[in-house]
Write a structure and sequence with these properties.
This protein has 14 helices and 27 strands. The chain is of the alpha/beta class. It has an 8-stranded mixed beta sheet, with helices on one face. Strands 9, 10, 13, 14, 15, 16 and 27 form a 7-stranded mixed beta sheet that branches. The protein has a 5-stranded parallel beta sheet with strand order 18-25-19-20-21, with helices on one face.
């Protein structure tokens, strides 16, 4: 049974449903079947438009599919969607009912071009924080394209399948026996990968001129949101292009240093940013990637989707991404022993030996978390001492199953073709190469600025940061930059927000000096 407070919230959330929604359960003899039955009955109790019925198809594990007005929608669940996936279930019900956030028309056109008969499976763990984005994105694809099915599968329910596939990381997206996607991602990633293999290329090509804008903002994080809002408030015709609204913020847990807000979390703050932006006439192009930016005075921007637009001022606020080791074996074994998220993939390493690469706060925190799951944790740091806060280092040193290796350069991640079994590193003091037998490697070596798309247009420093002046101007006239992608010190949310506002005001100031008229 769901908590009464959750039932009350769902009654409000589902109040707008007008279609008949059925949660069609495949009966099973699994000991947790009752748990699923109770969960779905509780959900059905929140709206007269939602009901539960049994199908004639027996299942080995608790499973169900969502119907709308008597027809299957292609949205399926194998397992009990609790934990982080409970939200995926609620969002799926809303999307099937035609409610909630859905892709815009340009994305829908691309989704409809996916070939009929496509059956997608996503393996998750209920503790995975990155899995819901993947599940919800693929569920939306299934809702939009009637020829596509998507099934969320709780890996804990099907250990034999997990073993057969050699899964050591989630989310893991399969079509047939082919791994299509592994790890964190967004709708932009998923759609591009599906289009590459399963789309009618002629039908999928979207060629659409979106028009001219006074300001184009690339990036949907704190700096981008702030820049877009400030630009719109100045009466400028503004467009935002983003792979995912919130950006890296979506993966941030507790936030306690945003002045005036005692505590919030990344996804909630991201939603607040979106709500604030949608209060203004800002055209938001989410789930898009930029292919090309021209060097013309009036910037031409082409998107990978085939869409294009032009702008007078361009603000780059693309943030940063997880930094990779760039050693042999890292990419080859991603999702099969190489991971970046200890919260998501840690459960797959219960009673196994893992290494964490990186001695900063994120690396030490990851090692501490993993020590509660794995049999042995080895923290490997390139420098001669750890860079994390002393309280974290002391905590790690107090753990009996944790070991620290410093002055070690990671050279290679080795596997047997299906999964990782060895980490090769060099002792920087002696020069000796050493091998560490293990089951998994978690990479935690910081962030890399997302500046590649403008590296040939503006000046970039040796760290990959966009070089800016005190007002956010870059080396190219009409291009501005803000946030973690720039040379501004201290990569903090509150600083990024301020920087976004600053560059928007700078762009407006430059526009006024040039006497450029606003677009209509």
């Amino acid at each position: 049974m769901l908590d009464p407070s959750i039932i009350s919230q769902l009654q409000s959330v589902f109040s707008g449903i007008t279609s008949a929604i059925e949660l069609v359960v495949s009966p099973s003899h699994h000991p947790q079947q009752v748990e699923l039955d109770e969960m779905l009955a509780s959900i059905a109790s929140t709206s007269p438009k939602i009901s539960v019925r049994l199908s004639d198809n027996l299942s080995e594990v608790p499973s169900f599919t969502i119907y709308r007005d008597g027809k299957a929608t292609g949205v399926n669940f194998r397992g009990i969607p609790g934990g982080h996936e409970f939200t995926s279930l609620i969002v799926a019900v809303l999307n099937v009912a035609g409610l909630g956030k859905m892709p815009d028309d340009g994305l829908k056109q691309r989704i409809m071009a996916l070939k009929s008969g496509l059956k997608i499976r996503t393996y998750v763990s209920l503790s995975c924080e990155n899995c819901p984005d993947i599940v919800q994105g693929l569920n939306r694809i299934a809702v939009i394209n009637p020829g596509v099915e998507h099934t969320m599968i709780d890996g804990g329910m099907v250990p034999e399948e997990v073993e057969t596939l050699g899964l050591q990381g989630v989310p893991a997206v399969y079509v047939g026996d082919e791994l299509i996607h592994s790890g964190r991602g967004a709708l932009a990633d998923l759609l591009a990968k599906l289009e590459a293999k399963f789309a009618d290329q002629d039908a999928a090509q979207v060629v659409r001129e979106l028009g001219h804008f006074d300001v184009a903002v690339i990036g949907g994080g704190p700096a981008g949101a702030s820049a877009a809002i400030y630009s719109a408030r100045k009466g400028l015709k503004t467009v935002m292009i983003a792979e995912r609204l919130g950006g890296q913020l979506q993966e941030t847990k507790g936030i306690e240093n945003l002045i005036s807000v005692v505590y919030t979390e990344g996804p909630k703050l991201s939603a607040n940013f979106e709500e604030h932006m949608r209060a203004y006439p800002i055209q938001i192009l989410e789930h898009r990637r930029v292919r090309m930016i021209s060097n013309d005075a009036v910037r031409q921007i082409e998107l990978e989707s085939g869409e294009s637009l032009s702008c007078d001022a361009l603000i780059v606020a693309t943030g940063a991404k997880w930094r990779e080791l760039n050693v042999p074996g890292e990419r080859e074994y991603l999702g099969r022993g190489v991971a970046f998220c200890p919260h998501c993939d840690g459960p797959f390493y219960k009673d196994k030996k893992v290494a964490v690469i990186g001695g900063g706060n994120s690396g030490v925190e990851a090692a501490i978390d993993l020590a509660g799951i794995a049999s042995d944790v080895v923290l490997v740091e390139y420098g001669d001492q750890l860079k994390a806060d002393s309280v974290l280092i002391d905590k790690l040193k107090s753990l009996s199953n944790a070991k620290i290796i410093t002055n070690a350069k990671t050279n290679e991640i080795v596997g047997d073709g299906s999964k990782v079994n060895t980490l090769v590193y060099q002792d920087r003091a002696s020069g000796e190469e050493k091998r560490l037998s293990l089951d998994g490697v978690f990479v935690q070596i910081g962030l890399l600025p997302n500046s590649a798309l403008v590296k040939d247009v503006v000046e970039i420093n040796k760290f990959g940061e966009i070089v800016i002046d005190p007002k956010g101007r870059t080396s190219a006239t009409g291009i501005y930059a803000a946030g973690d992608v720039t040379t501004i010190p201290f990569k903090q949310i509150v600083i990024a927000m301020g920087e976004g506002a600053k560059v928007a005001l700078t762009a407006f100031e430059d526009r006024m000096r040039q006497g450029v008229r606003h677009s209509l």
